[in-house]
Automatic annotation (TrEMBL):
Record note on cofactor: Binds 1 divalent metal cation per subunit.
Alphabetized SUPFAM superfamilies for the sequence: Alkaline phosphatase-like, Calcium-dependent phosphotriesterase
Keywords linked to the UniProt accession: Hydrolase, Metal-binding, Transferase, Zinc
Protein name according to UniProt: Sulfatase-like hydrolase/transferase
Record lineage: Bacteria, Pseudomonadati, Bacteroidota, Flavobacteriia, Flavobacteriales
């Protein structure tokens, strides 16, 4: 008997020791489209949230918690601990090469589980412009670092099904059957609680990530709605049901907390309740007598300020509130801190752990939030604009120069000048933060000659130096697939590839001294090559050193071209190109005896359009296909010509569209007319003088993008937000549109 008693004590002590040394469990709940104004503990009076309020009463409420204005932006930031500019690819996409907090928590010894909304593998529907380049390029839920999963929207958008009534749910490798009549959030919370219950006797701690489906639209009835009994009405979509959805989200939080208590796990489990962005703009809620419109998608407080509550029985003091700043990037390092493991040396995070705040310890965390926000590319995000800003509890500075006291001007209606010493100091501090986190330095300036330019280029647009160190950069072309820019370094015999995520790389090490570039209808790269004096297609590319080119055209009437320089594909697949003498050098003599402007039909028929120009250079066709523009880089007589296109391969009515001689004469760079591009409104952007001249379709000079150096060419990205410029040894980018709010 004595032996049994001793054994019992030993086993009890041993079990107690294991329990004591076990890492804490963590449950991270993230509501969908639920702003702070909806929660009772934050002062919301429109909805009943007793369980979330109880969470706050028993834990710590953060009054300065922020998220990105849209869900994917926050989810990518939250799961990777990085600012969006470091790993953003497209809406609804998480780069499959990234490591998530799921992977890191697995490595820290945790059993991991995710339930709820995924939406990070594929988003754009079939037929949406550019969708073919982005569909199914994201991370699969099964590869995201979670041992168990139960998710909605795990594949293509058009197949996602309902998240609420009669849900479509993918669970541990298979879609659930017999979900008709069920409610998605119930399936999720039941799976979550079952997972927790199965871990009770597991020596490993658990980490659960629960990105809720509630309270995102469609605004549909819940099982607690009076209309739920009518099965035909369960998929209704009316804002009147939003209150029911908030109440049900709160009910689910209550179920999670009650289950932890029932399993005796409350003291071993940290529960974090957060939200991915503000409430939908269709929803109006009250905080006492104050009406607050939802701000999802906007960078005002209603779009980015969210509820965040931490509860840990016996570990966090009850009923505390804090004004410490928390951003989505902070969760990953905090999770690892709670787990008692460091952030891996080879892992980059921008976040700061808020564990000391939970422990009520002194901490020296940042007192500001920085956001890099880009809602695109992605379906139905055209109405939203990127933004970049720094803010504290009173002021906000956007990277485009707008400065607000949002405490006094919550809707950011009027930008202010920094006049007081406090404002001057805040703005200077914010600017230094922006500069330190800005991916690219700036250069040059924008000269505004006519008021119309303000509708073309944002008043606060900046000229970013996105890459540099070239001999003479030229011929940029934008490829929507992959969101890549290609451009030539003519003397160095290279073509470079650049994108905002991966930066710069050599694409072709032997480009045959290419200049102008284009992308044809099949997505192939087309090059004007000085060395071969031809227009060629990149037929294959084993590696950067071994490209294979297929000449499209190299002779006119049996005689070799001089030096094809720039080209333009019209909407029917025909090519217009120029053939000046630049690539001939001093020794070679033109076989043709003239410098031409040509038309190459998609069937391969070549037509000479004009042989009277001294140095034809940049070339472009008007958006309506009726006017051909050609820049003549003739030093004594620089002209931008216009021709009427009668039919493919036939032009007439040659005339001076714009004479930039006076501008060039007054410039420092003295650049003669070079590359030409047109924006979506038909405005002409031409390299000349000190940079890029912007000329209206009527021939009025509206302004100049002064690059501060000789400038060769430019190109727009696919949504015309950005203009890329090749200027001497620089690749530049101008954000033409204003940032959003």
């Amino acid at each position: 008997m004595r032996f049994l008693a001793i054994l019992l004590v030993f086993l009890t002590l041993n079990c107690s020791s294991k329990q004591k040394n076990k890492q804490p469990n963590i449950i991270l709940i993230m509501a969908d489209d639920l702003g702070f104004e909806c929660i009772g503990s934050y002062g919301g009076t429109s909805y009943k949230t007793p369980n979330i309020d109880k969470l706050a009463a028993n834990g710590l409420q953060f009054n300065q918690a922020y998220a990105q204005p849209l869900c994917t932006n926050t989810r990518v930031k939250l799961m990777t601990g990085k600012y969006n500019f470091r790993n953003w690819t497209a809406f609804g996409i998480l780069d499959p090469e990234e490591k998530t907090f799921g992977h890191l928590m697995q490595n820290a010894g945790y059993s991991t589980c995710i339930v709820g909304k995924w939406q990070l593998q594929s988003y754009d529907p079939l037929g949406y412009p550019g969708a073919e380049h982005r569909r199914d390029t994201g991370m699969k839920i099964s590869n995201a670092g979670f041992d168990k999963y139960c998710g909605w929207h795990v594949g293509h958008t058009e197949n996602k099904g309902s998240r609420f009534a009669n849900p479509t749910i993918y669970q541990d490798g298979a879609f659930l059957e017999a979900t008709n009549g069920k409610y998605g959030p119930d399936v999720f919370v039941n799976y979550l609680n079952n997972f927790v219950n199965q871990q009770k006797d597991n020596e490993k701690p658990f980490f659960v990530y629960y990105p809720m489906a509630l309270t995102h639209d469609p605004f549909s009835p819940t099982p607690d709605s009076s209309i739920w009994s009518d099965e035909a009405r369960r998929l209704d979509n009316e804002p009147q049901y939003f209150g029911d959805m908030v109440a049900y989200a709160d009910k689910i939080v209550g179920k999670i907390m009650s289950n932890l208590e029932a399993q005796g796990l409350a003291e071993e489990t940290l529960v974090l309740f957060y939200s991915d962005n503000g409430t939908h703009q269709k929803i109006y809620s009250k905080m006492g007598d104050k009406v607050v419109q939802g701000g999802k998608g906007l960078t005002t407080q209603a779009g980015i300020k969210v509820p965040f509550i931490a509860s840990w029985k016996g570990k966090i003091k009850k009923g505390q509130q804090t004004n410490e700043f928390v951003d989505a990037i902070d969760f990953l390092p905090t999770l690892l801190d709670v787990a008692g493991v460091p952030v891996p040396e080879n892992f980059k995070t921008d976040g700061q752990s808020f564990l000391p705040v939970l422990k009520d310890e002194n901490t020296n965390r940042r007192d500001w939030v920085y956001m890099s926000y880009n809602p695109k590319p992605g379906a139905h995000k055209e109405h939203l604009s990127p933004a970049e800003f720094v803010m504290n509890s009173t002021h906000k500075l956007y990277a485009d120069g707008r400065f607000y006291n949002y405490k006094n001007d919550v809707l950011e209606a009027k930008s202010i000048d920094a006049k007081t010493n406090t404002e001057i100091q805040i703005k200077a501090k914010f600017q230094s933060i922006l500069d330190s986190l800005k991916k690219y330095p700036t250069t040059g300036s924008i000269e505004r000659i006519a008021p119309e330019l303000d509708s073309i280029i944002s008043k606060h647009a900046r000229i970013d130096v996105v890459a540099q160190g070239f001999n003479w950069s030229e011929g940029p072309v934008w490829q929507p697939k992959g969101q890549n820019l290609y451009f030539s370094d003519v003397p160095e015999n290279k073509v470079y590839k650049w994108n905002d995520l991966d930066g710069l790389s050599v694409y072709l090490s032997t480009s045959k001294n290419s200049n102008g570039l284009a992308i044809d209808a099949e997505g192939d790269l087309i090059l004007c090559q000085h060395a071969t004096r031809s227009v060629s297609k990149l037929a294959s590319l084993k590696d950067t050193l071994n490209p294979v080119y297929k000449p499209l055209v190299s002779h006119y009437k049996g005689k070799k071209f001089n030096s094809p320089n720039d080209l333009f594909y019209d909407k029917k697949g025909n090519v217009y190109f120029t053939d000046p003498p630049y690539g001939l050098g001093k020794k070679d003599v033109s076989e043709l005896g003239f410098n031409g402007v040509y038309f190459l039909s998609k069937e391969g028929q070549l037509t000479l359009l004009d042989k009277t120009l001294a140095r034809p250079n940049g070339i472009a066709v008007a958006n309506n296909g009726k006017i051909l523009y050609v820049a003549e880089s003739n030093i004594p007589k620089p002209i931008i010509w216009a021709y009427d296109i009668v039919k493919p391969g036939v032009v007439k009515n040659k005339r001076v569209f714009f004479n930039p001689k006076e501008i060039i004469d007054k410039s420092t760079a003295k650049q003669n007319p070079d590359g030409i591009k047109l924006d979506q409104h038909g405005n002409i952007f031409v390299a000349a003088g000190n940079g890029i001249l912007i000329i209206s379709p009527e021939g009025k000079h509206l302004g100049t993008i002064n690059t501060g150096r000789t400038t060769g060419n430019c190109v727009f990205n696919d949504d015309y937000r950005y203009l890329f410029i090749t200027a001497d040894n620089y690749l530049l980018r101008v954000n033409l549109k204003p940032f959003s709010k």
